[in-house]
Amino acid sequence: MVTSGAYPLRRTPTQDRASRQVERILDAACAEVVERGYDAASTSGIAKRAEIAVGSVYRYFPDKRSLIQAIERRNQARYTEAVSIRLAEVTSWRQAVDVTMTTFREMHRTDPGFRAVVLSGLGDPDLETQPGEYDDQHAGEFSELLTQRFGARDSSDFRLAVTVSIAMGEALAHLADRLPEADAATVLAQGLPVLYNLLAPHFPA
Q1: Residue 8 covered by a domain
Q2: Any idea where the HTH tetR-type domain is (predicted)?
């Protein structure tokens, strides 16, 4: 289970029971936003879904927006874990690109937390402005994988290319998931080679 250390809280849980309650609050917030939309979702509704008093929600999260921001950080941790497991089996860097794309799309379709963030239209602004988080974190981890296992030449240009490919890949995945299956396949067939071309110059011929 992802611990509450993955995101900021108003109060840090000191016992396993409290940590489980935080996770239950976030799960309830996901369900509330997915079912009702961000504007209609309420803290009282989230508390009811989590089967706790509304004061228990406010103990950890000051408002609805902070809940969505915490969900986004939890998404980051879950995605990183899932990708790491799958990347252990890949045998080429292009396959590694495919795996990250496939995992992102699967989690977007099946994990209510991913859908909740998209439906809210909100993200954690800190994840977009502070170095070392979100795309920067993905870029660092993916760059290390590509250099250590597949011989990519590490450099600032290479890491920037990885960051660009991640941002473009996420946009590509979101577009594909809005389209009928046949159109989505076409989008991916056209888009993935663009990502390969961004990275290819940094690998041995």
Answers
A1: no
A2: 19-79
Same domain for 91 and 29, yes or no, is no
Residue 131 neighbours by CB distance under 10 Å: 7
Number of domains in the chain: 2
Q: How far is CA 13 from CA 5, 20, 22, in A?
A: 9, 9, 8
Q: From the centroid of its chain, how far is CA 170?
A: 10
SS3 per residue for the chain: CCCHHHCCCCCCCCCHHHHHHHHHHHHHHHHHHHHHCCCCCCHHHHHHHHCCCHHHHHHHCCCHHHHHHHHHHHHHHHHHHHHHHHHCCCCCHHHHHHHHHHHHHHHHHHCHHHHHHHHHCCCCHHHHHCCCCCHHHHHHHHHHHHHHHHCCCCCHHHHHHHHHHHHHHHHHHHHHHCCCHHHHHHHHHHHHHHHHHHHHHHCCC
Q: Structural domain of residue 37, as residue ranges? A: 15-62
pLDDT-derived band of residue 11, with 50, 70 and 90 as boundaries? Answer: low
> Please, what is the angle between helix 64-87 and helix 93-110, to 10°?
140
**75 pLDDT exceeds 90?**
no
Among 151, 155, 144, 142, CA closest to 195: 142
45 with 91, same domain: the answer is no
